[in-house]
Amino acid sequence: MRPPNKSHESLLVLYITVPLGIIFVLVSTFSPEALSLSQLPSPWRLRFGFFPSPSSAILETHSNISIAINGPSFGSSSLAETESSYSASNGSSSNALEIKGTVQSDISKNNESDGKIEVLSRVVKRYSKLQKVEARLAKARSSIREAALVRNLTSTHQDPDYVPQGPMYRNPNAFHRSYLEMEKLFKVYVYEEGEPPIFHQGPCRSIYSTEGRFIHELEKGTSYRTKDPDQALVYFLPFSVVMMVQYLYEPGTFNTDAIGRAVVDYIHVISNKHPYWNRSLGADHFMLSCHDWGPRTTSYVPQMFKKSIRVLCNANTSEGFNPRKDASFPEINLLTGEVEGLIGGPSPSRRSILAFFAGRLHGHIRYLLLKEWKGKDGDVQVYDQLPNGVSYLSKLKNSKFCLCPSGYEVASPRIVEAIYAECVPVLISDSYVPPFSDVLNWKAFAVEVPVKDIPNIKKILTSITQRQYLKMQRRVKQVQRHFVLNGTPKRFDVFHMTLHSIWLRRLNIKIHDFDSP
């Protein structure tokens, strides 16, 4: 037998394999599965960082995580470029707020042509809690700006309790929209550090009552207070300057260094224990004081003086009060702690006194007022001390205009006393920013008299026509709700208006999350 012919065997193998090869190529080329991207991972899996690639790299910088993914080869294709990233700040949620990206694939077909396939993948950017807070604030700003375009004298928003209207508001619609946004978004975190009586409490009676009442309401836990500091828009420094003066100040020395050290130490404690002060340099923190030394107390911490929101009765622009970041706070003298009997008065036709003031010599402006008018005119009744048997409250309620001169400092409780008595207030001061001036148009319901015009008070007041006076007096009655101290705060009262002033200042700043890319 002859040995087998190897050339015939080779030909036989060739005849069998070549057709099979051609069939395989044709099937692989024209099959719809050939270009399928089903082997790519789901973009929603990328959100959580799950990608079945052995070459995935995790890059971590501080608390930020960036995941760059290089995918595996699939089929006969080579993945030339894949871009995907995951950005997360410490404490961020899993919500994806930005999705983008491309996958490019170069494919060779029978060495004849190159094709490029571009597929949307997902790049997930995670917002930190602060960034989400700032996003909500940005939306509120936009809503308020849109409302400000409406120039009607009446708000267009529905409200079961009160609809701002009239010229005593700079823009009723913008104010109302802002107030409603505040009710939805505003949260205050009260630092728990510090011990009473210097911290967490204040006087609820006397000339400093608004300071104590505000601290009390926040400590009590209103709907605006949050226990989660990451959800807060502002942070309250709960020290009372009045209580500091009472317990730390040595009378007669005029040395406030002990008060200053207490404030410096407090900021040192909260800035080392919490990240929030250092994050904003104090810009989203606020303090509140009705004491004359409130501004001086903040000067011991330069960042507080220059950057923090200072809510002050002593709103004196010549002493560093900045209306863009600081808020004027009404001074209210509640001898009993209650407002019953203080609010209301006779109709305008029953008010027989043109102008009234009673108060002791307390600063240069009062000296000029007493010198010019004390006991000299029956229409402009000015006293340093009322005669026995004469009621101060009765005098207020029987006067058309109530004189409100500054004392040693610019604020005066007589402004709110006049508003309570439905008497048109006459503000006599220099460099004073009245409360809620960013919302209220004081010229519509009050008279502002520069100090140099004290001799011309009667001439100024008598030049106001009866019709003008009646309008002003009606407006005083309408804005009265914004100055009332209620036992339980009510919408649009002095507690809520003070919060709104703080809310507006917070809207003016944007805090950046330096921990996020």
Write a brief caption for the model.
With 517 residues, this protein is of the alpha/beta class. It is 33% helix and 15% strand.
Walkthrough of the structure:
The chain has 517 residues and is of the alpha/beta class. It is 33% helix and 15% strand. The chain is built from 16 helices and 17 strands. The protein has a five-stranded parallel β-sheet with strand order 8-9-10-11-12. Strand 8, helix 5 and strand 9 form a beta-alpha-beta unit. Helix 3 (129-148) runs antiparallel to helix 4 (172-185). The longest helix is centred in the first third of the chain and has 25 residues, at 6-30. 36% of the residues are buried.
Helix content: 25-40%
What is the distance, rounded to the nearest whole angstrom, between the alpha carbons of the first and last residues?
83 Å
| Fraction of residues in β-strands | 5-15%
Mean pLDDT figure: 81
Low-confidence stretches: 25-121
- Gyration radius, in Å: 36 Å
How many individual β-strands? 17
Our count of helices gives 16
So what's the overall shape? globular
Instruction: Summarize the biggest pleated sheet.
Output: 5 strands, parallel
Structural class: alpha/beta
Q: How is the largest sheet built, in terms of strand order?
A: 8-9-10-11-12
